Amino acid sequence: MDMGDARQIIAKRAASEVKNGMIVNLGIGIPSLVPDYLDASIQVFFQAENGILGMGPTPLENADGNLSNAAGYPVTILPGGSYFDSAIAFGMIRRGCIDVSILGALQVSEQGDLANWIVPGKRVPGVGGAMELAYGAKNLIALMTHCEKDGRPKIVTSCTLPVTTYRCVKKIITEMAVFSISDQLLLEEIMPGYSLNDIRNHTEADFKISPDLKPNR
Questions:
Q1: CATH number, domain containing residue 178
Q2: Which residue in 98, 103, 112, 199 could disulfide with 181, CB within 3.0 to 4.6 Å?
């Protein structure tokens, strides 16, 4: 599967997790594609840790260079939206005011540990708000392709990359499957074009199968 197609599939599936009235924080990468797949009837407030609540779509032209999301890309503000300093933004996150945070991931362990900010030896801009979001959001969903480009699984027994936050991920969405994590890693859904054997062959971590497993959508 083309990597671009996989990203779109993951983002579309993740959009179904966003419900009316939520306050949602989106990470960079695949999570930033989620708004493209929201139903028009869904009204949510997108929050960014640089100090925005109520982000709208990307401006088509005449972008205000001073109005951007946490990744630095220009955004608009919907009616009722607001902006403020980053101290207030992080206060919202740490107080548990974010209903769901959707973050990209490099690895997720079977216990829900998240590694998503650095590959040792590679240059990165920094951890940003990932630690606070992983710890403070009411619900954390991790989005990632199921495997590395060389075929190594990203859903692992234990993270080999530096961990962002331990036991924080509640759900994993890949182009192959959807898992939930509570006391154990539970396979809830198999995406179209894949089989249970595909999931087993490309997942390092042990997992149980939900009695309500959905073969595909």
A1: 3.40.1080.10
A2: 112
> In angstroms, rounded to a whole number, what is the distance separating the alpha carbons of residues 185 and 129?
25
pTM: 0.91
Which residue range(s) make up the domain with 205? 3-214
Whether 155 and 172 have beta carbons less than 8 Å apart is answered as yes
Q: What is the pLDDT of residues 183-207, one digit of tens each?
A: 899 999 999 999 999 999 999 999 9
Return phi, psi of residue 189, to 5°.
Answer: -155, 140
Residues 6+ apart with CB under 8 A from 171: 17, 139, 140, 141, 142, 178, 179, 180, 181
C-alpha–C-alpha distance, residues 129 and 211, integer Å: 36
- Catalytic residue, candidates 17, 49, 110, 189: 49
Number of domains present in the structure of the chain: 1
Residue 204 designated active-site? no
* One-letter-per-residue 3-state SS of 57-78: CCCCCCCCCCCECCCCCECCEE
DSSP alpha helices (H): ranges in 160-208? 196-201
> Which amino acid does the sequence have at 44?
V
